[in-house]
Design a protein that fits this description.
Layout: H1 2-5, H2 9-31, H3 34-50, H4 61-79, H5 107-126, H6 129-140, H7 145-152, H8 156-179, H9 184-188
Helix pairs in contact: 2-3, 2-4, 2-6, 3-4, 4-7, 5-8, 6-7, 6-8, 7-8
């Protein structure tokens, strides 16, 4: 990032190539729409590039990047511009970024995988913004509690609490899905 601040566009391209997929996955957890998540990702990287001279290496770059990403996603969702409700499989907008591999064991397993993804997506959508951010950074991006605490400007204890509550909520949704209880994802199909 220091090289980017000095005008090195190749360094920026390298940062983008290395991190854009994880930022897009993170943004997708907020808006549940691949196209809009990609727009948010582009916005985040444009913001990084424009403000590169302001960067100070006080934290790891990934922590800094996800702080920018979390703030941007939260601001956009709060404005309502990117808020999306889960759409059934018939609608392309709600399709997750990570779909089952084409070589899945059977069509039934592929459908089950998409139903489970939809149930988890609905559960994530019901979390508070801070819970969703902490959960996504921990479970999907593998960030340490101290780094998440820095992203959220919170204590590590608060982050552990947010992740614990989010994990319980998502686990309840998965248990309901496994039990065959009607979930919003199943009732839409």
């Amino acid at each position: 990032m220091l090289r980017v601040a000095a005008g090195d566009t190749a360094a920026f391209a390298s940062l983008y190539d290395r991190h854009h997929r994880s930022v897009a996955r993170f943004a997708h957890r907020f808006v549940q729409d691949a196209g809009k998540a990609e727009e948010l990702t582009q916005d985040i990287f444009v913001k990084l590039y424009r403000h590169a001279r302001r960067y100070r290496p006080t934290a790891r770059f990934k922590t800094f990047l996800f702080r920018v990403a979390a703030n941007h996603c939260l601001n956009e969702v709060r404005r309502g511009e990117y808020r999306v409700t889960h759409v059934s499989e018939a609608g392309d907008e709600g399709r997750p970024l990570e779909t089952p591999a084409p070589d899945a064991q059977s069509p039934e397993r592929a459908v089950e995988g998409r139903e489970l993804e939809a149930a988890v997506a609905v559960a994530l959508g019901r979390l508070s913004e801070r819970e969703r951010t902490a959960f996504a950074l921990c479970r999907f991006e593998g960030m340490a509690y101290r780094d998440i605490a820095e992203v959220l400007s919170a204590s590590e204890a608060a982050v552990k609490s947010l992740i614990h509550r989010a994990t319980l909520s998502v686990a309840r949704a998965v248990e309901a899905w496994q039990a065959g209880a009607p979930t919003p994802a199943r009732s839409e199909a």
